[in-house]
Amino acid sequence: MAIKAGLNDAEAQEVVQETIIAVAKQMEGFKYDPKIGSFKGWLLHLTRWRIADKMRKRRDNVAK
Length: 64
Hints:
Layout: H1 9-26, H2 39-63
Helix pairs in contact: 1-2
């Protein structure tokens, strides 16, 4: 997903690592409720935010 979004391999690997860390930190309080959404949807949401962060950091580094 990160590669398709335009990140390079190193950035994509960082997204995976950061997403897994975020999932691990939040799993203790995670309560599955299909009325709210699926685990997959939650995971995709976390991943999209990490991708957006990497894209923003890239843009900010180019602007400097």
